[in-house]
Amino acid sequence: MAKAPVLTPRADDFPRWYQDLINKAELADNGPVRGTMVIRPYGYGLWERMQAEMDTRIKETGTQNAYFPLLIPQSYFVKEADHVEGFAPELAVVTHGGGKELEEPAVVRPTSEMIINDYFAKWVQSYRDLPLLINQWANVVRWELRPRLFLRTTEFLWQEGHTAHATYEDARDFAAHIHRKVYEDFMVNVLAMDVVPGRKTVKERFAGAINTLTLEGMMGDGKALQLATSHELGQNFAKAFNTQYLSKEGKQELVWQTSWGSTTRMIGALVMTHGDDNGLRVPPRLAQIQVVVLAIKGDDAVLAKVRELGDRLKAAGIRVQVDDRTDVPFGRRAVDWELKGVPVRIEIGPRDLENGTAMVARRIPGGKEPVGIESLVELLPGILEDDQALLLKQSRERRESRTAEVSTVEEAVEAAASGWARIPWAALGASGEARLAEQSVTVRCLVAEDGSVPDDEDAPGNVAIVARAY
Amino acid sequence: MAKAPVLTPRADDFPRWYQDLINKAELADNGPVRGTMVIRPYGYGLWERMQAEMDTRIKETGTQNAYFPLLIPQSYFVKEADHVEGFAPELAVVTHGGGKELEEPAVVRPTSEMIINDYFAKWVQSYRDLPLLINQWANVVRWELRPRLFLRTTEFLWQEGHTAHATYEDARDFAAHIHRKVYEDFMVNVLAMDVVPGRKTVKERFAGAINTLTLEGMMGDGKALQLATSHELGQNFAKAFNTQYLSKEGKQELVWQTSWGSTTRMIGALVMTHGDDNGLRVPPRLAQIQVVVLAIKGDDAVLAKVRELGDRLKAAGIRVQVDDRTDVPFGRRAVDWELKGVPVRIEIGPRDLENGTAMVARRIPGGKEPVGIESLVELLPGILEDDQALLLKQSRERRESRTAEVSTVEEAVEAAASGWARIPWAALGASGEARLAEQSVTVRCLVAEDGSVPDDEDAPGNVAIVARAY
Predict the structure, then answer these.
(1) What ipTM goes with this model?
(2) Most buried among A99, A207, A309, A435, by the most CB within 10 A?
(3) DSSP A315-366
(4) Architecture label for domain B291-383
(5) Nearest CB to B93: which of A65, A95, A144?
(6) What CATH superfamily is the domain B14-274?
(7) pLDDT by residue (tens digit) across A56-99?
(8) Where's the Aminoacyl-transfer RNA synthetases class-II family profile domain (chains A, B) (predicted)?
């Protein structure tokens, strides 16, 4: 008799599988205000690990964390015209405070360029104050009409970096550094996602930017998800806020700026990249629980062994949890850890103790085999690294097998039904991009022939990556 | 000729000294919406260290972090009557979202009992789900008419813990554990503040609580500051949200709850407890920069030495920063590090190199003396621990010397002009408390005769700590 599936199978209904997984793995719930979300402890634990890994990389660039207010006077939202136009439809507005109507309504930040630049203009005086490198971890609100947990929520959590530089080149190089050495490095080496770094077309640029760099990932259904962006802002905001510095040569000059962000959307990406019909699969380097040690029965010797093994694994630097809740049926706990995607389960019962072995279940390749208990401490680090590498390999193979080389708009639309298309930008251009949009297909990014990120939208050999996207 | 003071002296004008210090040490700026604040990188660094130390202690209790939405439907704010009455005057309300007036306005959370309990009611089913121990790090908004940076701001950052338990005793013990083993331990052993743990009177309780536990600190001007609170909520919210569990005996029972919070106000407390006329003094265990190594001149040998010494100190586990900005005058940099309160400055110039010594300036006791460079790595950990202990001792001595034992309301008011008063609660009572309030003096907390926290407001021997407060 076939077991009833725990989740709606991906092949049957991918969006429903996604909702099922988020619900059953206890990652998040819908909030009461439309589009908001409650991030449950297991989901938030993923975010905390993402924050820790990202924060280290961000600080290594010399960037410091700070915190700017949630509420921004509505009048600020007229300063940079493109930026304002981009965000106006999404704003949440506070009109009453302390029981009274406010003289000036306040916008709940949708992003912080408008308020941070106000302070940059005060803090930057001389070339000695540059580069000014600031990041904040914060919540933002963008009114969302078609919400989906983690992917598009009215409130989300993110980091937003904001920097000011003396020259165009410094700003450009910094935006590129964040793009590749912070974001891409984190996504490839921690999230095990085979992301594609590229530049956005003019149409897809951030409101107020002169260039937007992006990382695009292919999800399990072949659609694309934009994972993080890094923007060159040129002098657009510097002009709007009159942010000037006294150069070494004694001249007043406008600064050059960048901004860059990554969000809780990465949790949704994790689910849709590595999840399977049994649940999530968390890359070992990210996992807050890398190994769970389960007592099959509430036998004293078994409980003593799982606790002792837990202590030894912890001492060896492995992030481990002991599951000794033997009042909950073993099968239910095993399914739950599988749903949550913990990379390795070590299961120990009375018979295992007699044999000196434990059943080791590997979530990522799948499968289960007995292993000598005494050899676990030595074996596990290698298993975790192998499984980390396997996830990245599977992600790469999916992208490669589901990406088609095409040369016409029609072929691109067809390919986008099940994956990505690569098409020469010279053959597509802005007019082809507009025709794709009629079919809900977008240019995710432009890449150079050799896979690098083009310095120029119209460089010969540029290839457009085309897909349907979340 | 006397040097012009860097800050307004404390004795001249304490509030202005506080503002001066926050400004010149670059801790924070006022935000554009009244009462909001920008936490600058050096100030935010203090908060990050507080978060790290607190988060570890919170997780050791078995509490898990999660995240609940910023926006709460206005209709939720009718569920627990006392709670609602307490917060109604401070609410910020979003009435427009996505360019339209909302059908139901949303409140920007002033605290999260109202939304978290909605989910607790769903998540708690059986005794097996208890205790449910949740914490979140978040921003909250309470409209503030008399704002002061860090102490009272319209938006502030905090952690808020929310827990549900099977029995009254479990909830009571957990609230007490957070009070003493998390908050007090952190404040005494990291912030070096000699705080007094006690319980609030009925008048001073949190809106909706059956008991509020508090930690009160004496500031440099003798006033009191409430530093963190831990509340027993009884079954008030359980009744409002109908949060029930199936007991082992198969009966439906209401849960017992706690909530507890600590905020960016602790940064203001740090300033007012340890600051002096030259600036802040940061306790070494908190400091994100424990030691700064300054190159006096841009001499090659000097620069090489400060960098090498910085590397060695870092390798020894000391949080160190190298200041080799020799294009900024040395005196200005020294004053700046003094303002910022970095515990130890190591100053090295060409003459020091010849002697094999460095000038070591200790911010906490004050004073400066030459020390052999080679012995620094060995000496510094002891110096930092001594200075940590000295700050706590100074904080205790101030409280002891400025606290008077009194027996009448009049004496209590007189003592509160420059410090604290201790008065038997039996002699004061609710009527005496009301008379104190007419003089802007409040009962900060009740303590038992032996210094412990009373289980009962009216236990014989209870002493009221009475003061003016921030």
Answers:
(1) 0.96
(2) A309
(3) HTT--EEEE--TTS-HHHHHHHHHHHT-SEEEEE-HHHHHHTEEEEEETTT-
(4) 3-Layer(aba) Sandwich (3.40)
(5) A95
(6) Bira Bifunctional Protein; Domain 2 (3.30.930.10)
(7) 999 999 999 999 999 999 999 877 777 777 788 899 999 999 98
(8) 34-283
